[in-house]
Amino acid sequence: MTEPLQGDARRRMAAAAVVLALIVLAIVLAVLLREPAESPPHPAAPSTSPGASTSPGPAASGASPSTAQPSPSQPVEPSTETPEAGQDPVQPPATVPPVPVPPSAPDAGPGPAPDPGPPAAPFPSALLGQDLTAIPNAGRVVALTFDAGANAAGLPKILSTLSAQGVTGTFFLTGNWVEANPGGVGQIVSTGHRVANHSMTHPGFTGLDGTQIARQVRGAEQTILAAGGDPRPLFRFPFGERDARTIAAVNSLGYVAVRWTVDTLGWKGTSGGVTAQAVADRTLAALQPGEIVLMHIGSNPDDGSTLDADALPDIIDRISAAGYGFSTLDALLAP
Question: Per-residue pLDDT tens for 224-268?
Fold first, then answer.
């Protein structure tokens, strides 16, 4: 009886194995049959990015739609930066891809302020580069000018004569003279006269560099301003010593250079063979429209004479008699 029973058991086990094998085969077939239906979206994805077909794969190149496009601020930000004065314009980072920028983007931000250019000179541009020897187009007027670099011995008589005659003059002052005569600027300005710049210490300018010239001019300017006068924009070179370079340097500091038509030579004094009559005669011999007369305030260091102050009444009378009037050098600044 045992053998039939064992045979039945073997047959049942074999049948179960067959059934199990059929189930596994059915599962495998089901999986294989479902895969083609789900796979088409993968090859279709690159078609949404034109450049993706040349790369190894979307994931490796980062060319998917979510990463290939930079944020809108990347190309626009550099064009909206306004560089500060003296700095280079802000440049886009090197890693920003070359994405086309809309035409309006460069104008999205405010541009740099227009360059106003150099400030206008405080005198007519036609006077640049010149050391003037007469007042252009002045007509029948004369400018009496007085240099102050030594002492103030002749100042009281000069101011008294000008006041009595109703004439105004131009006084070229050094900074040293102003410091040595603290009340001098006030006396000149309060009586209606014009002050001007004659340097700080009266050196020859052609031997100075640009920095030294600026110190001389600015030093005198500040000293005169502190004393109550304003010398700008009139300047006279000490000793009349100048060249194209020094004239340009003075112009760049805001000053027009003014020389003279005639030097009276009164500064030579009686010890130099000069008289008050000779001073007046020399001035009248050079009479012309726009004449600029150079005189001095100080006394001769050897004999103490003040010939320009002594000759001034006769000079004014004779110029007036010739049909001329008088002007300060502000006439140069008229447009």
Answer: 999 999 999 999 999 999 999 999 999 999 999 999 999 999 999
Whole-model pTM? 0.66
Residues 164-185 have a mean pLDDT of 97
For the chain, what is the HEC assignment?
CHHHHHHHHHHHHHHHHHHHHHHHHHHHHHHHHHHHHHCCHHHHHHHHCCCHHHCCCHHHHCCCHHHHCCCCHHHHHHHHCCCCCCCCCCCCCCCCCCCCCCCCHHHCCCCCCCCCCCCCCCCCHHHCCCEECECCCCCCEEEEEEEECCCCCCHHHHHHHHHHHCCCCEEEECHHHHHHCCCHHHHHHHCCCEEEECCCCCCCHHHCCHHHHHHHHHHHHHHHHHCCCCCCCEECCHHHCCCHHHHHHHHHCCCEEECCCEECCHHHCHHHCCCHHHHHHHHHHCCCCCEEEEEECCCCCCCCCCHHHHHHHHHHHHHHHCCCEECCHHHHHCC
Q: Show which residues are catalytic.
A: 147, 296
